[in-house]
Write a structure and sequence with these properties.
The complex is a heterodimer. Chain A is mainly alpha-helical. Chain A folds into two domains: 92 residues; 33 residues, no CATH class. Chain A is 75% helix and 0% strand. Chain B is flat and about 55 Å long. By secondary structure, chain B is mainly α. Classes of the chains: A mainly alpha, B mainly alpha.
Chain lengths: 137, 106
Amino acid sequence: MTFDDVLDLAAAICLLLGAFLSLAAGIGLLRFPDALSRLHAATKPQVLGLLFIVAAIALASRSWSALLALLPVLLFQVLTAPISAHMVGRAGYRTGNFRRELLIVDELENAVDEASREAEKAGEEVEDRGVGPAPQK
Amino acid sequence: MSTALTVIYFATGLLFTAAALLAVARIVRGPSILDRVIASDVLLTTLLLVIGAEMVITGHTRTIPLMVVLAATAVFGTIAVARYVSKQDKPQAGESPQSVDLGGDK
C-alpha cells in the first residue's frame, strides 16, 4: 500500500462522512416535528459536511492551490449559514411556527410580548411593518 | 484497493441520493413555507457537496468556481423568503402549526 493509496483512501472516507452528514440532515428534515428543530438538522452538512468534502478534494488533488481555492467556499458558508438560520428562526418563532409544548425554556417570549405591547400602545399600524418589534423612536 | 474505493464511491452516491430525496420529500410535504425553505436550503447544500464529491471521484478540480459561487449566493433566497414570511400575520391562539396557512390571502 503506497502513500498515494493512503491519501486516496483518506479522501474516500472523508467523502463518505460528508455524505453521511448530508443523509443525517435529510432524515432530520423528515422526522423532526417542527420548523425550528428541522433548522437544527439542516445545519449539519452546511459546515461539517462541507469541511469533509473540501478536505477530500484537497487530499485527492494533492495540491495546496486547490485547498486555497476552496477556502472561500468554507468561509462563505461559515459566514452566511448563521445569517439564514437566524432569519428563518426569527420568522419561525414570530409566526408561531413551532410546537410550544416541545420547548423547555422560552427566553424570547417576554421580549416579544413586550415589543408587541409597545407597538399596540403606540397605536401604530402593525400590518405594514409585520410582526417585528416596534422601531426605536 | 481500487475495489474498496469503488465500493466507497457507490455508498457515497447512494447516501447523497437518499439525502436529496428526503429533502425533496420535505419540500413537497411542507406544511409551512419555512419548512420548505429549510428543505430547499438542505437540497442546495447537498448539491454543493455532490459537486465536490464528483471532483474527487473523477479526479479534476474544474468546478471549484461553481462551488464558490453557490456557497456565496445560497443565503439570498433563504433570507428573502424568511423576510417575506415575517411580514405575515401571526396564527390565531390555539391553532396548531400544522394548520397555519402562511401563503394564503388574508
